[in-house]
Structure prediction request, 84 residues.
Amino acid sequence: MAHDHATRTEHDHITRAEHNRITRKNLVSSLATGLVMGIIAGAPIGWFGHRVFYQQRAGQVLLCRQQHLGQPEAELKALCGSLY
Prediction:
């Protein structure tokens, strides 16, 4: 019975070692998968965020230009900035 216990412990140890090796082996593919998923999820979020920021900025510039209507273009650019 003591022999079975020793064999079982050795077998468990080998199983853990194999598990650790498999985990290290799959690390690169796991990181690549996470990167691809991040790009797929992040691109639309980034695009949406950029679009919201751009629309907000455009609104601010147009409102400023309307408030200072009749002033020369150079002065409007200095006061309100540019869309681009």
